[in-house]
Amino acid sequence: MVVVAGQELRDLWLGGRGLVLSFALSLLLSVISYLVATNRALNFLEQRESVNLTLQVAIAVGALLALLTAADAVSGERERGTLESLLVTPVSRLEISLGKLLAALSLWAAAFVITVPYVWFLARGVGLVGNAIAVGLVVGTLLAIFLASFGFLISVFAASNRVSLSLSLLVLLALFVPTQLPSSAQQGWASDLLLRLNPMTAGEHYVGKIVTNGHAWSQDISWLVSPLIAAALFAATALVAGARFTRLRGGASG
Amino acid sequence: MSSARLALLIGLLLAFAPAAQAGLSVSNDRTAIATKLGHKFVFHSTIRNDSTAPAGGLVAHLNVVDLSGHTYVDPEDWSSHRTRYLAPIPAGGSTTLPWPMNAVNSGTIGVYVAVLPRSGAPVPPTTGPTLRVRIQDRKTLNSGGILPLALGLPALLGLMALGVRFRRAR
Description:
The structure holds two protein chains of two kinds. By secondary structure, chain A is mostly helical.
């Protein structure tokens, strides 16, 4: 597993793709931080709100990067014709799957490291730095594990890399849709249930409660249930599926 | 209709029309404010009860209106505490309220305070004079010193990505 993870990490980071994605993320965070810092200077945004906004974008984009990398993990190798040589190496398919998942998650780790200076800059002075970074790490890691595992799962079964990437993106967008609903549409038990069941909305809601509202970690802990379950469930399923169903040909006929 | 009858009718209408609370007046500690976009400012309004009876159950409300005619104003952005429930004001007494505000848009806005009873027969609110607030536009380029971070980190990562690419090309 260490060998596979090491190879995948080298491909990702020394191949340049990881750094280019990190560069893109840092550009995005710079623009957002600049805008919220300007707005804060003009008193449009409360300091906590600006930290929350930046942190939520970092979590969402960091998890997206992990998802896209994982969605390319098997179907991409299949299309590039490199999966066969990987499968004949004396490494179990479970180890291959775990190594690829870890490599995909390294993008989230890098995204988090890149986010820290921005959060520190925006949160300093209100005693929020430690809490914001900690809750960002916990929630972001859970969501990244969930999304990377989901992307990997799709990648194992997808007939082509294009199908894998587009299906992963489609599901990610669908998970984000509830965050765009007007607040009037987010009232009532059904809406509350939907927000709690959706790991993305539940995780981002929890971050907002800690960062913006200053709640204690235990106060809204129930919102962490679905990200936790989704991360554990999808990681286990992805590893099992990767170990049993990684084939040279994808899709139903594979 | 004779002029005498008309005068009588007007007198009766005035007598029975609901009146603003008798003896109540609102004044501000200034008539105009000049500030800059993004700055905070405070003004004080004094609600005076010149009647012979205490005035209770009053609520004071801060109103914000654009006077330039081309700026959207959301009063909530300008002040987060626009409604105050007042303690009873004794006869001949007064109470002074501070109104902290944020200058959210450039331009000229009018601010006034209205005082009305929380219950009883509906009467027109007692309003104070309009405070004219002139807000000068302001540009911020390096808010709080964000520029070094906003430019430095992407530059560093961009250089690293270029370095890796250059090394691979060789």
